[in-house]
Amino acid sequence: METRKLHYFVQIVDAGSISRAADFLHLAQPALSQHIASLESEFGQRLLVRTRRGVSPTPEGLSLYRYAQGILRLERAAGIEIRKGSGGVSGYVSVGLGSFSCANEFGVVVLRKVQERYPNLVLHYADNLSVIFSQAIKMGLLDAAIIYDPGPIRGLRFEPIRTEDIYLVASPDLRVVEPGATEITLDEVSALELFLPQPQHVLRQIIDRGFQAAGLELAVRAEINPPTGLHQVVKAGLGATCLPKSVAEELFSADEFQILPIVEPAMSATFALCTSVRQPMSDGAAAVIELIRAEIAEARARDMTGDEVTSRLRPTA
To answer: Per residue of the chain (317 residues), what is the pLDDT tens digit?
Structure first.
């Protein structure tokens, strides 16, 4: 199958530069440019805009980029499955792990079971894509994702995992409440400078709606998506953040940070397993999704019996 030019195109878009992509691909830059010119000729459209700072896709190039990702993913999955032969469930399964969630810990449990039960299955975890995970599933770039539930979206199924209250997290040096207080009101939160994800993140949308419903102004000091970056700025005492309880406890130690439930009014977020209603599902994808569902059921059972959910899977996302 001749998909080299699509692979080259995706690498250029990801790198934002033909020269950087050429170095990564170990190709001469003129040869790589020639491949892109050939693609543009085939489609009859300009695919890349060249600037002093590098390249970026045109609207047509962005469409090709998304389709190319799906094509290359299917090519890789087919190659793995066919080469493995008839030795049980095999192939390539891609699962999105939403940021600011406990999906990473959840993923470790599932990965361990995949290794034990399906040695011919290659499991890929994605934590960053050019499109949001729900759209990636609709486009066939992902088989499933563990994300915040954004509400009904046509063509997608959301299976709730857990609903959690939103907590405020701040360094101990930042005075956010009176000494001895064990909770914080939304009005008190509105007086703080906050570090939050970008507006397209569902967590940010939940927080925005909560403030709007209460008639309060949201003071966002900076928008930070990587959890590590968020941890650093909060630890430095530059401001506070708002996270679901389990995420707050996972990213921030209760011994080192103030972790307070937000009340009057409270806000909550629901995590869900997202899958496609329409996209065909491979045997490998079906097997992995069933493992995820089994872990969801076990987590709920532990919650119902009052067991501490701190072993294999924390209150989850």
So the answer is: 578 888 888 889 888 888 888 888 888 989 889 988 989 988 999 999 988 778 889 989 888 887 887 787 777 767 766 766 656 777 889 999 998 887 877 888 999 999 999 988 889 898 876 568 888 898 888 999 999 999 899 999 999 998 999 999 999 999 999 988 999 999 999 999 999 999 989 999 999 999 999 999 999 999 998 888 899 999 999 999 999 999 999 999 989 999 999 999 999 999 999 999 988 888 889 999 999 999 988 888 877 665 443 344 443 33
Which residue type occupies 230?
Answer: L
Structure tokens at 169: 């997290």
In the chain, DSSP assigns E strands to 48-51, 54-57, 91-97, 121-126, 144-148, 156-170, 184-185, 194-196, 220-223, 241-244, 258-263, 268-276
Task: Tell the residue number behind the tokens 């072993």, with chain if given.
Answer: 311
For the chain, the structural domain boundaries read 4-64, 88-160+270-305, 164-269
**If you classify domain 88-160+270-305 with CATH, what class do you get?**
alpha beta
Cβ pair 15, 21 in contact under 8 A = yes
Supply 190's token pair.
């509105």
Question: Which one is the CATH code of 164-269: 3.40.50.300, 3.90.1200.10, 3.40.190.290, 1.10.3720.10?
Answer: 3.40.190.290
Tokens matching residue 252: 């921030």
CATH C-level class of 4-64: mainly alpha
Phi, psi of 178 (to 5 degrees): -65, 150
Residue 30 burial (CB count, 10 A)? 9
CA distance 24 to 12: 10
Q: 88-160+270-305: same fold as 4-64? A: no
Asked whether the whole model's pTM tops 0.70, one would answer yes
